[in-house]
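ok trying again, last paste got cut off:
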Amino acid sequence: MRHVLHSADEAAVHKITRHATAPGVWLKAFVPPETLEPWLAPGWHLAGGPGYLMCASLPVAPTRALGPVPAGYRLNTWTRDGVTRALVRTADGDFAARGQIAVTGHTAVVDQVETDPAHQRRGLGHLVMHGLTAAAAEQGATAGVLGATPEGRALYETTGWRVLAPLTSALRGPDPADT
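nice, full thing came through this time. structure:
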């Protein structure tokens, strides 16, 4: 289970974290870590490091024409059940990069964008983001939102995204870093 609080306050966080006692429950709030942490009930901890809620306007005149795929890679995109996925593989079929986007009316939500460390700094993240946002614009979305890590923030800012708010995550149960 995942709780995403668009407007977090101490009372709401206390209520959720006192009543959600099963391990593996996530809470995400648009506040800095130093604000969220003291509001958490026992058994909860900050998880996932700092994050950011980001947004961008999507192209008004969408085009699926992407820049060239770097030599040695191939890009596949497909849409199923309202989610468009982009997957970049090497010529040998190894994973290189991926991402997905879901359109919800005029807004699209980007998720699970990643580039394998062995394939970073080759334009694959830009390729994935361009393909996803173009697909969302073709489906009528005019704005995009996403949650970013500090590393992802750098990529997204170079593709026109901006930070709206901090995004902090908490997890119920043992800290995976301690196991």
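cool. The chain has a mean pLDDT of 91. The chain has four helices and nine strands.
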